[in-house]
């Protein structure tokens, strides 16, 4: 056996060993009750949350009162960021943890809605469905969506209508019409110009520091603030720091430093945030226009659900989310901003229930 | 032993096994002649070249006639791009291959000049020197530099004076004054805004395709040209393609498509190239200004060595290198563009000879 082949076998064995362990808790459970449960999973570039809810057949209007049986949290599950194998492990792990916490087996699950970032094409969806199929018994209904859909559902109680803007580590705008048309913009990750995201803001700020150091750009308060935050002593050290770890979330964690500098009057930081607002607003506008959510006169009311750390209200003067809304409402005065009270994983669980009930009613 | 620990031991054994193999050829060589050899290595983000030259103690003016004994080529050795272990393996491998080709042992080596991209800080330099020290006998003089320095030397016959602009997969401007001052700009990789590089050009072009698809930007010929080049059928598939492999060189390989579209009159492609020219020129200007290479009146003559695929003359109308020179000469009319006739690895070997002779003369 060549060393390369040995390594493949070794890795495969390690994986099997781990996955057996993931579901071990099921052996200790007795006969499960038969009312059944739902799993809603929100997998982002920073963290992954899985919610377990009871499966009770009641009407849509009561959905918001569905109790949460268990909640589990894990790290990044965007396959474009951490790779397919790591993403899969994280998702399987966090689902097992949620079920284990409420003492349910996989056989009690009625439906799973996996809303994960990095699902950009039907082939992504199919690949994830295939390995999800191996984990659950045949009767379990499986739905795989982009995480943006769950975020929208978290603000609309599971109804797919309007536009959602997510700006956390990554950013994306996703919209649905009531008759089922959908459209998206941005969400293509940092290489493909996702500049409104937390990663985009932080990368632009880091770039500004390097430019100031090189003599290619104006000096900025970002230099001392970012170096201090990272415990580095010179701008040259930023290069080593940046490439030491390819995690997008690690870069995006610098956003609060940029906001603080902008609030303190730094022009360079201010410009980075203004550009991010323009980027985010232009993504929403593209979706609204393509779907005609604003009506023929451009003034119809439609909801925009705002999700993610970048859009959360800050105490200081600089509120990125509010600036984006101001920018959008200049074009579309009917925009109704919604900041959801529940997290996207709950939106995913609502969607699982919705999709399941539709299939059930159909036949 | 835990599976993690087992993996560490296994990897270490694999490494020892491979490295033993690298130098096996030395056992088959007889007693080596004592005139000695020099190694010059140019390690970029796309490829790594190692040159072996004879060590003959003659004067500086004759340096350009140094014959090449052997040349070996390998892949990327930028530790920021492929990681420390892979970079190290590649460098050790390619040096062994060059020595093996001319039938020399490590004991015949007098000096090694390793010019590798990703060396941005004295700590990078020291880390590489440390493991290089383990490979060669104690008498061998070792020099580790940023690859830009070798590129400059390839255009100035080993003299460190003037500015070099490299634009291949990455880009950097590096300059030296005759009294030993140095300065650099850009070269901080894609996250830190290296937008004039081949990677930068291609990433901007890919971004333009995604924006056109989303409805956030004008439609462009880049869409059909890039999709055809990559054998993809839709812009959504670009996301999967982009993140399937994190190699910067793979993205940068799309530059010729962008040039072709710009030559065919595509406005979006044209804008991407014009922005790259501005970026590259601004890096050079920052270095020239900081070092005062242009003299007090801004009109003194100084060489600018142009290296890398992006700057090579194209047959069509769009010559990025020429545009950059035009842009620089508006500020600094004394600029003398040089397109080197030898490759940077030869520049590295010249530097090894230069540094060695200086140390020899000093003591």
From TrEMBL, chains A, B:
The catalytic activity of this protein is classed by the Enzyme Commission as 2.7.1.59
The record ties this protein, via InterPro entries, to: ATPase_BadF, ATPase_NBD, Euk-type_GlcNAc_Kinase
Gene3D superfamilies the UniProt entry points to? 3.30.420.40
Q: Which residues form the ATPase BadF/BadG/BcrA/BcrD type domain?
A: 39-352
CDD domains the record matches: ASKHA_NBD_DdNAGK-like
This protein's source sits in the domain of life called Eukaryota
Question: GO molecular function of the protein, one example?
Answer: N-acetylglucosamine kinase activity
The membrane spanning regions, by residue number, are none
Q: Which family does it belong to?
A: Belongs to the eukaryotic-type N-acetylglucosamine kinase family.
Protein name (record): N-acetyl-D-glucosamine kinase
The organism named in the record is Psophocarpus tetragonolobus
């Amino acid at each position: 056996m060549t060393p390369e082949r040995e390594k493949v076998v070794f890795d495969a064995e390690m994986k099997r060993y781990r996955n057996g362990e993931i579901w071990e808790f099921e052996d200790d459970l007795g006969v499960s009750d038969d009312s059944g449960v739902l799993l809603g999973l929100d997998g982002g570039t920073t963290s992954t949350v899985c919610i377990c809810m009871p499966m009770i057949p009641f009407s849509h209007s009561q959905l918001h009162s569905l109790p949460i049986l268990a909640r589990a949290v894990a790290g990044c599950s965007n396959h474009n960021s951490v790779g397919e194998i790591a993403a899969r492990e994280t998702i399987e792990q966090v689902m097992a943890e949620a079920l284990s916490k409420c003492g349910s087996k996989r056989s009690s699950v009625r439906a799973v809605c996996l809303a994960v970032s990095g699902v950009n094409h039907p082939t992504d969806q199919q690949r994830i469905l295939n390995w999800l199929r191996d984990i659950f018994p045949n009767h379990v209904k499986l739905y795989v969506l982009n995480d943006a859909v769950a975020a929208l559902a978290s603000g609309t109680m599971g109804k797919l209508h309007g536009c959602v803007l997510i700006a956390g580590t990554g950013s994306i705008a996703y919209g649905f019409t009531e008759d089922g048309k959908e459209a998206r913009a941005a969400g293509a990750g940092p290489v493909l110009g996702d500049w409104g995201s937390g990663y985009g803001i932080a990368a632009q700020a880091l770039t500004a520091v390097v430019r100031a150091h090189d003599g290619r750009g104006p000096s900025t308060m970002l230099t001392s603030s970012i170096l201090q935050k990272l415990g580095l002593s010179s701008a040259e050290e930023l290069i080593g720091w940046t490439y030491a770890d390819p995690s997008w979330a690690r870069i995006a964690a610098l956003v609060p430093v940029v906001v603080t500098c902008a609030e303190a009057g730094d022009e360079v930081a201010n410009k980075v945030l203004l550009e991010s607002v323009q980027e985010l607003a232009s993504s929403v506008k593209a979706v609204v226009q393509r779907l005609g959510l604003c009506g023929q006169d451009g003034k119809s009311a439609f909801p925009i659900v705002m999700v993610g750390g970048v859009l959360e209200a800050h105490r200081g003067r600089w509120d990125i989310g509010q600036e984006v809304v101001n920018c959008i409402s200049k074009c579309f005065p009917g925009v109704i901003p919604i900041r959801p009270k529940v997290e996207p994983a709950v939106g995913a669980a609502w969607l699982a229930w919705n999709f399941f009930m539709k299939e059930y009613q159909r036949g």
